[in-house]
Amino acid sequence: MQVPSHVEYERSASVEHALALLGRPDHRVLAGGHSLIPMMKLRLAQPGVLVDINGLAELAYIRLDGGQLCIGALARHADLLDSTAAGLHFPIFHDAERVVADPIVRLWGTVGGSLCQADPSEDLSAVFAAVRATAVIRGQDGDRTVPVREFHLGPYETVVGPGELLAEIRVPVSPGTGSAYEKVARRVGDWSVAAAGAVLQLDQGTVSQAGIGLTAVGAEHFVAAEAEDFLRGQPAAEENFKAAAEIAAEHCHPVVDQRGPEDYKRHLVAELTTRALRRAAARAGASA
Amino acid sequence: MTMRVAVTVNGTEYARDVEPRLLLIHFLRDELGLTGSHWGCDTSNCGSCVVWLDQRPVKACTVLAAMADGRCVRTVEDLERDGRLDPVQQGFIECHGLQCGFCTPGMMMTARWLLDRNPDPAEAEIREVLSGQVCRCTGYENIVRSVRWAAEHAEGTTR
Fold it and tell me: Do B62 and A188 touch (CB under 8 A)?
């Protein structure tokens, strides 16, 4: 039987209330809880006080606003999967959300919680890195914004400080853009062995901007920056996708674990990056 | 330290003083004696503990009872009404949807939720919605058939 260690519980009535509570020592945000509670059961996390934000409807939204897709931190995975706006502009979100955990967990796990958990195998970190999203972090003195590519400090560590709360993730909507996410997992609900997300903006068949995110393979900030640099300015062609994917596979740092050896994971990065780029290009063509 | 938790379970309000670390599945089983929901893997993988929390299924081993305070829970005990089985329950009988029965309460609660949203789901949709739940006996074939049976015999029994 797995039992969390002793903990106190506070339910926040508003974002301001949550921020005031989170400014105190040893207080931790409880959102969907589907990462935090399992970690508490294993005693890998032993917060003193949980601050439950599940009632904060003001943080649970997905909307288009001024040319950006704005996702409230408390939006559930299922909400993102159901969002027509998200699927229209960023099919990568729907690709990824179909393979995050399982349908029941997706009803409760939150988008913001996934980012803040900062698990190296978590899917949305690579997705938001690929689309060059911006995180809006709220504190008692107001909001600050951080590019998602600078959001993670390392495994299970983010720039969100004491007394702060991730409030929103913003993604700029650009015309002529296509995106896709490809994942290999051992079974439903499991973490990725490896996964790749790609975003391509095309201008007359040439890649004007590329975003490539990698999951679970030790890519710095979840990004394949060298592969993105290679693709920019190149024709959107199969041989360039394969070359970029090889660069991505070369520059990541997969670890050997029960999900596979290093060479297999690099092989997956190359193959999945190629597939993601291929689909992203096809979708960019369709939306242009 | 304990806290007062008041939860409406299957239409009845229960209030108990519990530790904040108490999981919802243990609240239901040990505090309220509602042992229909099963405590399985303890890791949110198997789904035998699925109940509804505010109308949506949740793995009750991964929710604190405190999080359910002031909310509504529905468990497998609420499927039968006035001596009449829910079509999902009847479907599991008709199609042999269980052998050992351990996963069954969770399977049925998720199936009921699916059918309330989509009264005529395709086999693929049934398999998808149940994909986070584990059965070690049936190979899933009969579970899927049971849910389809319920979809085909829904007349006058939806709520």
Answer: no
Beta bridge partners of A256: none
B-chain residues within 8 Å CB-CB of A104?
47, 50, 57-59, 110, 132-133
Please tell me the distance from the alpha carbon of residue A126 to that of residue A124, in angstroms, as a whole number: 5
Q: How far is CA A157 from the centre of its chain?
A: 14
**Is A109 exposed, middle or buried (CB count within 10 Å of its CB: 0-12, 13-18, 19+)?**
buried
Q: Tell me, what amino acid is at A235?
A: P
Residue B41 touches chain A, beta carbons under 8 Å: no
Looking at this predicted complex, what is its ipTM? 0.95
Residue A288 pLDDT > 60? no
Strands B50-53 and B72-74, how do they pair? Answer: antiparallel
Reported as type and span, the H/E element at residue A8 is strand A8-11
Number of neighbouring beta carbons within 10 Å of residue A187? 9
Q: Is the pTM of this model over 0.90?
A: yes
Q: How far apart are CA B58 and CA A192, in angstroms?
A: 23
Using alpha carbons, select from A207, A183, A223 the residue that is nearest to residue A284. A207
